[in-house]
UniProtKB/TrEMBL annotation:
<dbReference type="Pfam" id="PF00871">
    <property type="entry name" value="Acetate_kinase"/>
</dbReference>
<dbReference type="GO" id="GO:0008776">
    <property type="term" value="F:acetate kinase activity"/>
</dbReference>
<protein>
    <recommendedName>
        <fullName>Probable butyrate kinase</fullName>
        <ecNumber>2.7.2.7</ecNumber>
    </recommendedName>
</protein>
<dbReference type="GO" id="GO:0006083">
    <property type="term" value="P:acetate metabolic process"/>
</dbReference>
<keyword id="KW-0418">Kinase</keyword>
<dbReference type="InterPro" id="IPR043129">
    <property type="entry name" value="ATPase_NBD"/>
</dbReference>
<dbReference type="GO" id="GO:0047761">
    <property type="term" value="F:butyrate kinase activity"/>
</dbReference>
<comment type="similarity">
    <text>Belongs to the acetokinase family.</text>
</comment>
<keyword id="KW-0547">Nucleotide-binding</keyword>
<keyword id="KW-0963">Cytoplasm</keyword>
<keyword id="KW-0067">ATP-binding</keyword>
<dbReference type="InterPro" id="IPR011245">
    <property type="entry name" value="Butyrate_kin"/>
</dbReference>
<dbReference type="InterPro" id="IPR023865">
    <property type="entry name" value="Aliphatic_acid_kinase_CS"/>
</dbReference>
<dbReference type="GO" id="GO:0005737">
    <property type="term" value="C:cytoplasm"/>
</dbReference>
<keyword id="KW-0808">Transferase</keyword>
<dbReference type="InterPro" id="IPR000890">
    <property type="entry name" value="Aliphatic_acid_kin_short-chain"/>
</dbReference>
<dbReference type="GO" id="GO:0005524">
    <property type="term" value="F:ATP binding"/>
</dbReference>
Length: 371
């Protein structure tokens, strides 16, 4: 089989991760944490592009890696209009949508397609994006809300959720992803809880719209009336409170920190507030898992937990105790995002999967009665 070299690029809110793969084998990886004051210098996310690009180039030079040898550049997606799952070519249109954050979500993941395409163009290669957070495979029943014309379009940690589900289906259930029903969670800075039915994410809790459990940086679901009262009491505008959805909610709102390791340390040292915040977040994750079990009509082959907080034995043990009545709980601490990006590109290069074209049109565009 032909071998391919794939450079994967994952820009996060506080870090940039890069990894070089030869087919499935990781030859090099680096995770650089950014100083908050460095990133704060940039007004807009896209203004960070030259800084992140130069940092990547410096790292690769240090490691004696030449970009000329790379066959394909893959970036974590973001900023895109809702699309189906799969591996996409970074076209000029996708580049523009990522740069403008066309879906209105302000998150550095949108730098992924831009960095990948800039490098690819320079070296005459292709740039790709695999299962961006904008993948939306909701079933129709999961779309409607109680306000006419307000329908759900979802954002999830699709890259890690799908790769975890694909691996678990293959290695543990000895089946294809398309033959299994799974509840898959990513429990990191943001938290995804999602229902996968036969290879499609048919429902879940949005990670950037204030749904689902509270997370280190996110407020999660709150009664609408409570939010309206909170705004009225404090004379806040929509723009004042929006950061609670993705930046300053959850642990940050309660304790001013986003690091779960620090929070659990405080809890273990007797800080009862920190302990309550931790246990409440876990309780809310469990409630969400329960509702995804109902979405799957109780036919669940497994509950899979991924993300950084899954390194916590206490979190896994609590969820296992509460949710094992639904299905066995499996822990996959950390994430497979870099591996997932490489694997997605390799599947296309090997001809196992078709490279998709980003249409720039929503893959779901409302109910007929809303038009
Ligand atoms: N042993 C642990 N116990 C509790 N939290 C942990 C542990 N190890 C890592 N974490 C937490 O995981 C979070 C980061 O998760 P990660 O999935 O890397 O985040 P992101 O979604 O931002 O990529 C941090 O809050 C970190 O403190
Ligand atoms: C575009 C949203 C992606 C996201 O929320 O990722 P993190 O939880 O890693 O910040």
């Amino acid at each position: 089989m032909k071998t391919y070299k794939v450079l994967t690029i994952n820009p996060g809110s506080t870090s940039t991760k890069i990894a070089l793969f030869e087919n499935e084998t990781c030859l090099y990886s680096k995770n650089v944490a950014h100083d908050a004051s460095e990133l704060a210098k940039y007004n807009k996310i896209s203004d960070q592009l030259p800084y992140r690009r130069n940092m990547i180039l410096d790292l690769l030079e240090e490691a004696d890696i030449s970009l000329e040898d790379v066959d394909v550049f893959v970036g974590r997606g973001g900023g895109l209009l809702a699309c189906q799952g799969g591996t996409y070519l970074v076209s000029d249109l996708m580049y523009e949508h990522a740069r403008n954050m066309q879906n209105g979500v302000i998150h550095p993941a949108s730098l992924g397609p831009q960095l990948a395409k800039d490098f690819a163009d320079q070296y005459g290669k292709q740039a790709m994006v695999v299962n961006p957070p904008d993948v939306d495979e909701l079933q129709d029943l999961a779309r409607m809300t109680g306000i006419k014309g307000v329908n759900r379009i979802i954002h999830l940690h699709s890259l890690n959720l799908k790769e975890t589900a694909i691996r678990h289906s293959k290695n543990v259930l000895h089946k294809k992803y398309e033959e299994t029903n799974l509840i898959v969670c990513h429990i990191g800075g943001g938290i995804s809880v999602s229902a996968h039915r036969e290879g499609k994410m048919i429902d879940g809790f949005d990670i950037v719209m204030g749904e689902g459990p509270m997370a280190p940086t996110r407020c999660g679901s709150i009664a609408v009336a409570d939010v309206l009262n909170y705004m009225k009491q404090n004379q806040y505008t929509v723009d004042d409170i929006k950061p609670l959805l993705t930046k300053s909610g959850g642990f940050v709102s309660h304790l001013g920190i986003s690091d779960a390791k620090e929070l659990t340390k405080r809890a273990s040292e007797g800080d009862s507030y920190a302990k309550m915040v931790w246990n409440t977040m876990i309780y809310q994750i469990e409630k969400c898992i329960g509702s995804m079990a109902a979405v799957l009509h109780g036919k669940v082959d497994g509950i899979l937990l991924g993300g950084g907080m899954v390194y916590s034995e206490d979190l896994v043990q609590q969820i296992r105790q509460t949710c094992s009545f639904i299905a066995p709980v499996f822990a996959y601490p950390g994430e497979f995002e870099m591996e997932a990006m490489a694997a997605g590109a390799i599947r296309v290069l090997n001809g196992e999967e078709k490279l998709k074209e980003y249409t720039g049109k929503l893959c779901w565009n409302g109910f007929e009665w809303d038009k």
